Amino acid sequence: MYVAVKGGARAIDNAHAWLAEERRGDRTVPEMTVAQIREQMGLAVNRVMAEGSLYDPDLAALAIKQARGDLIEAIFLIRAYRTTLPRFGGAQPIDTGNMACDRRISATFKDVPGGQVLGPTFDYTHRLLDFMLAADGDVPEAAMGDPAGDPVPHVTEFLNSEGLIQPEPESDAVPRDLTREPLELPADRALRLQSLARADEGFLLGLAYSTQRGYARNHAFVGELRIGSVAVEMDIPDLGFAIEIGEITVTECETVNQFTGSKTEPPQFTRGYGLVFGQTERKAIAMALVDRAMRWEELGEENVGAPAQDTEFVLSHCDNIQATGFLEHIKLPHYVDFQSELELIRKLRAQAKAAGQEDAT
Amino acid sequence: MFDVSTRQGWMGLLARAPSNRVSHLWANFGPVPAHETLRSPEIGAVMVRGRAGATGAPFNLGEMTVTRCTVSLACGTIGHGYVQGRNKAHAETAALIDALMQTNRQSDLRKVILEPLAAEMEDARTTRAAKAAATKVEFFTLVRGED
Questions:
Q1: Which tens digit of pLDDT belongs to each residue from B55-71?
Q2: Does A237 touch chain B (CB under 8 A)?
Q3: With contact defined as beta carbons under 8 Å apart, do B43 and B88 qualify?
Q4: Chain A residues lying within 8 Å of B135, measured CB to CB
Q5: Which of A24, A53, A82 corresponds to the end of one domain?
Q6: Is the CB of residue A314 less than 8 Å from the CB of residue A294?
Q7: Residues A294 and A159 in one domain
Q8: Could A90 and B46 be called an inter-chain contact, meaning their C-beta atoms sit closer than 8 Å?
Q9: Which helix (H) or strand (E) segment is A269 a member of?
Q10: Is residue A283 over pLDDT 60?
Q11: Domain ranges of chain B
Q12: Residues of A with CB below 8 A from B136's CB?
């Protein structure tokens, strides 16, 4: 039997009105605009776009404002919004080799062609609070150098030309899409990468860290990390040719991992891959490590039972909207469920008591 | 960098251009020509893809917002606008410019809208590249010891 309970409407309305007031905060402090969030909370905006799986900085900034800075709530809002959009089609795969790089570093080759370009990074800062930011002040314009202008080649290309790294099989197959069909296991690499690209950063960070600590260790070097903008091209049926429909910023991480080899193949480095919307390098590195760990089977490695090797476990738990939906639903009314548990436990206790009295006599 | 001599080129430029710059330059161009809207501006999503290991098999990375619009001028010329984001006016303007670029107003449009827009965007891109170049590490080696 299902018994509907009514009477919460007034309380809910008032709770939401208070939420709006609390969101606004102290009215003597100026209200933040969506543009301010977009421009000054850029990395939060990037995370919401990446995990919300929708590239639109204005929408992400609006979601952060609405969610009072709760990024998972903001991601939830973006995911809900994207389901309302008609799908115009699929773009051609982006060419990260043609990226206009803001940042491009390699931890494996010091003198890599194109150089080590640090970009706007937190690396090498002292992590001391900067109280100057609490005061108003203009920021001086960043220094300018002499841009080379040519696209920067991928580091793995050098290893590839020597045959030292496992090549990526070429393909133009249309990938399966998690947002269109339920996840089916076993999941191919394309499906795994889609799932990781929108996965929770914290979950991936923990899993990636676990591989470094020895749970499916695969000894990753960051062969290359690059952040910058790439054009997105799509075939337009009305026109009969492809046009650029926009430009997005992405972070790409390619790891170079320990060897594999067999009787027929000489030892080769293997690779992990991370690609994420926005400037999101922690997530991209974590993604590459977890991608590499999940490739144990195709690379002929042993399954040591590590969490990061367990594709079903990773893919079933890495989505923070699925996770938070199920986790948080247990705070909603379960009065009837619990009533039955209460009755059951009372009955069991009464039986136990009666049995005890019988034993005593 | 931005080639506005081909249809692909100008459509790509209009797709990526900042909405406020497009509307500003369009307003300066003169009155909006008589036209019919074949497809009203529509906001949708396009699935962006990457390749495993940058060069391997494609995978779905996530979607981006795109707005499209189709117009036809009084002479029957059809123009399409596909622009990044959710600005309907931007998509409609892009469609009108695309249509007019196929007429004899081509050179005016190039001069008043497309070339200035391309120059501004090229400028922004160069500035960013210059800032990145300034953060390039110049390694040097310290030689220590006697031999």
A1: 999 999 999 999 999 99
A2: no
A3: yes
A4: 103, 117-121, 145
A5: A82
A6: yes
A7: yes
A8: yes
A9: strand A268-277
A10: yes
A11: 7-134
A12: 115-118, 145
Any domain includes A320: yes
The answer as to whether A344 is a domain residue is: no
Q: Do A205 and A63 fall within a single domain?
A: no
Mutate to test the interface with B, among A122, A123, A234 (most CBs of B within 10 A): A234
- Its domain, for residue A70, covers 9-82
Q: Which 3 state secondary structure label does DSSP give A231?
A: strand
| Residue A146 near chain B (CB below 8 Å) | yes
Using CA atoms, how far apart are residues A27 and A21, in angstroms rounded to an integer? 9
Question: Measured between CB atoms, does A98 come within 8 Å of chain B?
Answer: no
In a domain, A55, yes or no: yes
Whether residues A48 and A15 share a domain: the answer is: yes
List pLDDT tens digits, range A221-243: 999 999 999 999 999 988 999 99
Q: What is the interface size between A and B, counted as CB pairs within 8 Å?
A: 234
Domain count, chain A: 2
Contact yes or no for A111 and B139 at CB 8 A: yes
Nearest by CB: B54 against A85, A96, A197: A96
Closest of A310, A308, A249, A235 to residue A277, by C-alpha: A249
Q: Which residues of B touch A50 (CB under 8 A)?
A: 62
Is A273 in the same domain as A234?
yes
A109 and A237 both lie in a single domain: yes
From the list A231, A241, A271, the residue facing B53 with the nearest CB is A271
Distances A264 to A116, A159, A271, A317, B129 between C-alpha atoms, Å: 36, 20, 20, 38, 45
Report the residue from A90, A102, A241 with minimal CB separation from B47.
Answer: A90
Predicted confidence at residue B1, as pLDDT, reads 66
The answer to whether residue A141 sits within a structural domain is no
Tell me the percentage of chain A whose pLDDT exceeds 90: 75
Pick among B64, B84, B125 to test the A interface (most A CBs inside 10 A): B64
List Cα–Cα distances, A262 to A93, A125, A266, in angstroms: 32, 44, 7
Query: Which residues, in sequence order, are CB contacts of A226 under 8 Å at separation 6+?
Result: A96, A99, A101, A103, A104, A105, A152, A251, A252
Mean pLDDT of A281-297: 96
Residues 6+ apart with CB under 8 A from A309: A216, A293, A294, A296, A303
